[in-house]
Amino acid sequence: MVEIFDNIRKIYTFTEACPELAEHIEFFSESSIESTQKYIGNSNFSVKMFPSWTPTFYINLGAPYLITVGQQQHYINAKQDILILRDSIVERFNTPSDNIFTVKFYPGGLEAILGISQLKCVDRIVDLGTVLPAKLLAQIKKSITFIERCELMQDYLLSLFKERQQKDHYLRFVLDCIDNYGVSDMQLNTGELAERMFVTSKTINRYFNRVVGISPKSYFTVLRARTALTHYVNHKEGFNPYGFGYYDMSHFYKEVVRFTGKKLVEHSAA
């Protein structure tokens, strides 16, 4: 299965974070054995995900699995839990007994809640035991239901977040920039966005590199490609590349190849 091209969410159970954390956590999720059997059957399969720069916890509730991050493949044993940034293409190889509990943060969410800069996660797999208490991880693994696991994780993260009451200026600025970029239909370049935020291009670059780990131009290229490709897959007949800041369809096609490593015609033929 390939993210965006395929609906990978259909084999997972999802729930949103509480209002206090909703700005920083995109969702909690868990593998659904029932849904996997319904849509995949009893065969081994893989799920490929494209760059999103969204820190994600993977807590293993089932069997060992293989995961490829960038160019490196890693073996994750049954007791191992990890944190990845998803700054490159990630492919996880699943088995019918696969069972993973995940927490996906928005860019900067890891720093807002846990005080950990996501720059430390670039191009690597982090042992989640160095980020979360061993007792919490053990409780989550012993819990019977998905809801219980969500409550345990959310209560812990919320307690940390409340301790960090003072809003981080850098994070707030980056989130406002992302909002402004979306409101402009992804048409603004870095200089235009800096003018709208009443700062210099140098300042906006410094803030993005501090919070997200890449320049605003690079991040918005990823965001635009993800958004446009998703819209194209779901509404191919009415797709307009100009609405996403592309010069023409050729420009869009080239960005899809650069972003996914895959031509649209290859997907159509699959």
Set out the fold topology:
Layout: E1 12-15, E2 25-31, H1 33-39, E3 45-49, E4 56-60, E5 65-69, E6 72-76, E7 82-84, E8 90-94, E9 100-105, H2 109-114, E10 126-127, H3 134-142, H4 146-163, H5 169-183, H6 190-196, H7 201-211, H8 216-234, H9 249-260, H10 264-269
Antiparallel strand pairs: 1-2, 2-9, 3-8, 4-7, 4-9, 5-6, 5-8, 7-10
Summarize it.
With 270 residues, the chain is of the alpha+beta class.
How does this model look, in words?
The structure is a single chain. By secondary structure, this protein is an alpha+beta fold. The chain has two domains: 8-163, Jelly Rolls (Sandwich); 169-269, Arc Repressor Mutant, subunit A (Orthogonal Bundle), CATH 1.10.10.60. The chain contains ten helices and ten strands. It has helices at residues 33-39, 109-114, 134-142, 146-163, 169-183, 190-196, 201-211, 216-234, 249-260, 264-269; strands spanning 12-15, 25-31, 45-49, 56-60, 65-69, 72-76, 82-84, 90-94, 100-105, 126-127. A six-stranded antiparallel beta sheet has the order 1-2-9-4-7-10. Strand 5 and strand 6 (72-76) form a beta hairpin. Helix 6 crosses helix 7. It starts with 11 loop residues before the first strand and ends with a helix.
CATH H level of the largest domain: which superfamily?
A: Jelly Rolls
Proportion of strand residues: 15-25%
Structural class: alpha+beta
- This entry's quaternary arrangement is single chain
Termini distance?
Answer: 11 Å
Uncertain residue segments: none
- The CATH class of the largest domain is identified as Mainly Beta
